[in-house]
Write a structure and sequence with these properties.
With 498 residues, the chain is α/β, with parallel strands linked by helices. It contains 15 helices and 23 strands. The protein is globular and about 85 Å long. The structure holds nicotinamide-adenine-dinucleotide. Nicotinamide-adenine-dinucleotide binds next to helix 7.
């Protein structure tokens, strides 16, 4: 019997094998077999990881900004040159097709590039002579040790939303990746060391709820960036905040695409296919519901089914369009929504369970699935499915569609498809969602804007990356200074007036 490798932690600039005696299973979803185990940290390992990061903080904070930037630039160059290796790791544990894995790395790399401009982003203001002989200026300083807790669906991009900014701003990061696909984080840690990052500045703590709770409650952790499902995001926000930490917790989603009758239906169909089935629907910005303002639904369904018949689902290493779902349990849960839809009176236009798959028979397969006439009372409509199941809801007017979107519990992303600029402008103004696309189905903001939703899609005030990310990982200080000269004098207990 061969012993499977165990993905270790990364502590003090080296792999750190676990002694906890607890491990999780890591699958290759296209093969349907366990290929590795992952360490699940115990209390001693959590303490060691955080204290190593804490010890590294003073020196990293004091490191000149130019030196920090040279590490970030070197990291960017190495990542760009070797991202193919990382994409293969992602595909082997997550299942997404290789081109999509490369795509997520590229989006993460944009944040590294943004963080390369940190000296400019950290600059403060200076007011000379705010009062007589008094100058006022501001600066931003790092927080210390910050925790990043990430989900399975973007094992490289989501951590990269946070750690480049946190580190370039002078913090030390403890990353707790998803236990479903932990190897990307270890690869990134090795690359950072090669780029010259001092030991302890970037730590990978593998684990489950115990590791998350360790980060949420440890007195030496100043802030938490979390991304995952809504119930856990809410828990993380409440627990971290109760322990005095700054917390941003991004949660789940149910994204709608509103299609007006004047839209270009070929563009709509292409966009709905890409946004509904890309990464097998395991994207927080995936389109889950197409809200078709009649009379477009029948024509649109014709175009969607035509395109769906050309999609190839299979092993992400074989040039397919769509890969498997991440685990068998998740695949079965997603597939169960098709039965719920039928029971609730929806029309199953195409059932992806019956497709042929270009991969191992044991892979966690589910083909693209299309549902029509989905009742908005059905769990298929109200719950996040997180798989390749696209629902059509038919409405009579723009207002009915808008009200539907605004009455949802989530507010992550949405899109409108129309050729009417006035309607698009009205939608961007009226819709209660954090990220809006106009004829763009997945409106993930570029790195120098900030990513985050409204309502149950984000707990906390601050979004990821962009200026909000810089502010999240730093705290401002205003300094009022007076250098005495021989002419000063006199006691005055009031505020200075001039
Ligand atoms: P998840 O909530 O199961 O796990 C996220 C993280 O929380 C993981 O690191 C996991 O180990 C940890 N965790 C799991 N259970 C926990 C518990 N009981 N206590 C403490 N920590 C726990 O999410 P997932 O299945 O890995 O990812 C998919 C979810 O993430 C979807 O809901 C998706 O919408 C969401 N997501 C949101 C965004 C966004 O930007 N809003 C981005 C990506 C993914």
């Amino acid at each position: 019997m061969t012993t499977l490798p165990v993905v270790p932690h990364w502590i003090a600039g080296a792999e750190y094998p676990s002694n906890s005696g607890r491990t999780g299973e890591v699958f290759d979803p296209a093969l349907g077999v366990v290929t590795k185990h992952v360490a699940l940290a115990n209390a001693a390992e959590i303490e060691h990881a955080i204290s190593t990061a804490h010890d590294a903080f003073g020196e990293w904070r004091d490191t000149p900004q130019s030196k920090k930037q040279s590490v970030m630039f070197a990291f960017r160059e190495l990542l760009n040159a070797r991202k193919g290796e990382l994409a293969e790791i992602i595909t082997s544990e997550h299942g997404k097709v290789l081109s999509d894995a490369l795509g997520e790395i590229t989006r993460g790399q944009e944040v590294v590039e943004f963080a390369c401009g940190m000296p400019h982003l950290l600059k403060g203001f200076y007011t000379e002579n705010a009062s007589t002989g008094v100058d006022v200026y501001s600066t931003r300083q790092p927080l210390g040790v910050v925790g990043v807790i990430s989900p399975f669906n973007f094992p490289a991009m989501v951590p990269m939303w946070f750690f480049p900014i946190a580190i370039a701003a002078g913090n030390c990061v403890v990353l707790k990746p998803s236990e479903k696909d932990p190897s990307a984080a270890i690869w990134i840690a090795k690359l950072f060391k090669e780029a010259g990052l001092p030991d302890g500045v970037f730590t990978v703590l593998n684990g489950d709820k115990e590791a998350v709770d360790g980060l949420l409650t440890h007195p030496d952790v100043a802030a938490i960036s979390f991304v995952g499902s809504t119930p856990i995001a809410k828990y993380v926000y409440e627990t971290g905040s109760a322990h005095g930490k700054r917390v941003q917790a991004l949660g789940g989603a149910k994204n709608h695409m509103l299609v007006l009758p004047d839209a270009d239906l070929d563009l709509v169909a292409d966009s709905a296919i890409n946004a509904g089935f890309g990464s097998a629907g395991e994207r927080c910005m995936a389109i889950s519901v197409v809200v078709a303002v009649e009379p477009v639904a029948d024509a649109l369904i014709g175009k969607l089914t035509e395109r769906m018949s050309t999609l190839r689902t299979g092993d992400g290493r074989r040039g397919c369009d769509m890969g498997p779902l991440v685990t068998k349990a998740h695949r079965d849960k997603v597939a169960s929504y098709i039965d719920i839809a039928a029971a609730d009176g929806a029309t199953i236009v195409h059932d992806g369970r019956n497709d042929n798959f270009d991969g191992d028979a044991n892979g966690f397969w589910l083909g693209p699935t299309l549902l029509d006439h989905v009742p908005t009372t059905s769990k298929v409509y109200t719950e996040e499915i997180f798989g390749p199941v696209l629902s059509i809801v038919r409405v009579k007017s723009y207002d009915e569609g808008l009200n539907l979107i605004n009455s949802g519990a989530f507010g992550n992303g949405t899109a409108i498809f129309t050729n009417d600029g006035g309607a698009a402008r009205k939608f961007q103004y009226e819709v209660e969602v954090g990220m809006v696309g106009i004829n763009v189905p997945i409106p993930v903001p570029v790195a120098y804007y900030s990513f985050g939703g409204w309502k149950n899609s984000l707990f906390g005030d601050t979004k990821a990356h962009g200026i909000e990310g810089v502010h999240f990982f730093t705290r401002g200080k205003a300094i009022t200074s007076r250098w005495l000269n021989p002419s000063h004098g006199g006691i005055n207990l009031g505020f200075p007036q001039n």
